[in-house]
Amino acid sequence: MSPSIPDPSPELLRRAAAVRRAATALSQLNDDARRQALHAMADALEAEADRIVAANQEDLEAAATDGLAPALVARLKLDAAKLAGAIAGVRQVADLSDPIGRRQLHTELDQGLVLERVSVPLGVVGVIFEARPDAVMQIAALAIRSGNGAILKGGREASRSCQAILNALQQGLVNSAVSPDVLDLLTTRQESLALLKLDGLVDLIIPRGSNALVRFIQDNTRIPVLGHADGICHLYVDAAADPAQALRVALDSKTQYPAACNAMETLLVHEAIAPTFLPQAIDTFAAAGVELRGDPAACRFGITLEATEDDWRTEYSDLVLSVKLVPDLEAALEHIRQYGSRHTDAICTTDPVAADRFLAAVDSAGVYLNCSTRFADGFRYGFGAEVGISTQTLPPRGPVGLEGLVTYRYRLRGDGHIASDYSSGMRHFLHHPLPL
Amino acid sequence: MSPSIPDPSPELLRRAAAVRRAATALSQLNDDARRQALHAMADALEAEADRIVAANQEDLEAAATDGLAPALVARLKLDAAKLAGAIAGVRQVADLSDPIGRRQLHTELDQGLVLERVSVPLGVVGVIFEARPDAVMQIAALAIRSGNGAILKGGREASRSCQAILNALQQGLVNSAVSPDVLDLLTTRQESLALLKLDGLVDLIIPRGSNALVRFIQDNTRIPVLGHADGICHLYVDAAADPAQALRVALDSKTQYPAACNAMETLLVHEAIAPTFLPQAIDTFAAAGVELRGDPAACRFGITLEATEDDWRTEYSDLVLSVKLVPDLEAALEHIRQYGSRHTDAICTTDPVAADRFLAAVDSAGVYLNCSTRFADGFRYGFGAEVGISTQTLPPRGPVGLEGLVTYRYRLRGDGHIASDYSSGMRHFLHHPLPL
User: Quick one: which of A281, A212, A220, A287 has its CA closest to A250?
Assistant: First the structure.
């Protein structure tokens, strides 16, 4: 842990405790009350739309003065249309089915001694994001829908927008059963660093931003982090691939949205299919504006730039693709093991044996057959919302929907049952499964 | 992170990579092969029983020379009977149903594009335990049953016993489809510290030992840790409790095995029931050899030792109990929120409203009604085995069986499907659930 992380100030501790208290009350509310709170938030955002857009305008003007990069300005911008879309998103989250109170296990341990495991909110989530002010609305909606409090920290550039949005959300909550205290917004860099030290008050940190931001947070907190630093996704074109299909999948995986974490960074090609696949792939990628960097074998087919060792470890997030020829499937698996980030990796093949081997042996959150890596996404998976994509090994892994914001609790109901009756042999466990 | 944690030596990195490689191969084996490997391990342990008991005898002699504490000697001791019990345990783990390859989700995203989520092994677990050499057998069995490799580090006192056990286990694996390389034993303190830095090679660390050991590990690794530092469990005797039943439950919760993490440390008593409950409770606990420490109100009923603020935060792990009177259920909830460790907390009451409020509002891994806190245990819950008990908020929480050693992976099978067809509106997702 970096020594530069400050301890939380008494004021921050007091505020975090207030969020936690409000979240505890929120966790006791039923589905309808939480749903209604989201609609009240959406109503208030609509009522405050002009004020929010005006605050965003001020942020944009300050950004122009500061010479903010155009990509950041685009993310910062929140006009009436974008705001309306975000408000519709809040109402969509309201309509998702309740993730709380689901019984996951139900066992009669003995007569009159019944165990159940039910889903419950996590508690309080800390969310750190760069520029995008619309993240405030999305995260607040997801957190409250699932019964959690949220401590938010946006980028400095978006401070006026975030504050205006938070004001509206809290005004909305006044017209609901949820205390406005369940949401808090941190404004200083000192506070956002100290957030990393709020173990016991914050149960999960969700970073939304650059790989560097995520890695910094992972390295500087004991609180679990939902996210991923790298998305180095591979597509392996097997000897038995359909070349036209493989090219279509490869092109989509690279170019459909190259800045996304689920875009392909390295194309692995079986040397037996290279003569039929690669020349056309080189032309197609060139036409799409993709810069190719090949290993020596791939360069013999016409790639002009040679890949270095660094290329296999790089998430370009851009129209750049490294290409490597492999002698067989096992060599492709070994390359992915060595350089992959366990995010999403795909194979194109018509050989069921090769397909099964790849799907069983690649230990990534997503392993795909004959389809684009770009499908790795909570909405596309049908989760209705996405909290983030996790590349850690333990669950939740891959695209995470509302289930990433809930945990579970065991409830055991007895009638004077004591453990010594079982250790003495006087009574015996039944462990009889009951319907969920 | 403490600056005293050494970086892994090249030799340790090489060994950990060997475990990981062997674990990857193991993860591809089917249920029968993993089951058979456990029986081969059990066979080898039986064949090597004399050698193992002799090695343990040497450890015991060294412990006597070093003046090891009697409690540690008791845990270190592995005689023929204890060994036979541990071998039977290995065969029981073999008989548990397969935690791998379970389909948890199955969705047709679109015609010909099918998503599934299946359980897979974690990879490699690191296990650090004190004294007890039988932990080697149990953990090796659990890890291999669930398709994982294991890097083990036992206490220095048990080094000869652990080495003899590991030799036997690896000899057993020679007669199986599993490489003996899936198990490795660390022997030096330097190595066990460096284990904490094997991110990327080790997926989960399981500490088995004192609270101080667990806390040290949690504070000094980025690898997820399955365990709990504190077990401060409460029993609240409500105004509407059956006094005789409450006393029976309280006595079992405290005395059935006071060293366990799920033993009660604090008894909260509603002041309305104190006159009928507490005098008899004081006598009963005294007769059982339990030292009581009361708040001023409890002391008025005859408890002679006054509890200090520290008592409410202390896991005695001994025949000591702190007792506090509370004016109502809400005060009990507030005490548990403030001082509890979110392990297991219980209420005794005949009032269904109070019961429901307690079970909904206490955010601990286990919340119990009218039964002993000592039921918080993987075997008692019917999991067949226990990897550990977790008091972190995120799953896995509470007693964790084999499911704590598995994760999941998404598999997506298509036929040339690309994301741009959906973003262009040419195709639409079905998100049609399929049978599991």
Answer: A281
Tell me how far apart the alpha carbons of residues A40 and A168 are, in angstroms, rounded to a whole number. Answer: 10
The reported pTM is 0.90
Question: In this structure, which CATH number among 3.40.605.10, 3.30.420.40, 1.20.140.10, 3.40.50.920 belongs to the domain B10-105+120-219?
Answer: 3.40.605.10
The ipTM is 0.92
CATH 3.30.70.990 fits A10-219, yes or no: no
User: For residue B155, is it left (φ>0), alpha (ψ between -120 and 50) or beta?
Assistant: beta
Probe site for chain A from B104, B393, B422, B427 (most A CB atoms < 10 A): B393
Which of B375, B379, B424 to mutate to probe the A interface, most A CBs <10 Å? B375
- Cα separation, B402 vs A387, whole angstroms: 27
**Count of other CB atoms within 10 angstroms of residue A13:** 15
Among B106, B120, B121, which Cα is nearest to B413's? B106
Asked if A17 reaches chain B (Cβ–Cβ under 8 Å), the answer is no
Domain spans of chain B?
10-105+120-219, 233-375
Instruction: Quote the CA–CA distance of A268 and A259 in Å, as a whole number.
Output: 20
Fold of B233-375: Aldehyde Dehydrogenase; Chain A, domain 2 (3.40.309)
- Could you list the pLDDT tens digit for every one of the 436 residues in chain B? 555 788 999 999 999 999 999 999 999 999 999 999 999 999 999 999 999 999 999 999 999 999 988 878 888 999 999 999 999 999 999 999 999 999 999 999 999 999 999 999 999 999 998 878 988 999 899 999 999 999 999 888 999 999 999 999 999 999 999 999 999 999 888 888 899 999 889 999 999 878 888 888 888 888 889 887 789 999 999 999 999 999 999 999 999 999 889 999 999 999 999 999 999 999 999 999 999 999 999 999 999 999 999 999 999 999 999 999 999 999 999 999 999 999 999 999 999 999 999 999 999 999 999 999 999 999 999 998 888 889 888 999 999 989 899 999 999 999 999 999 999 999 999 999 999 9
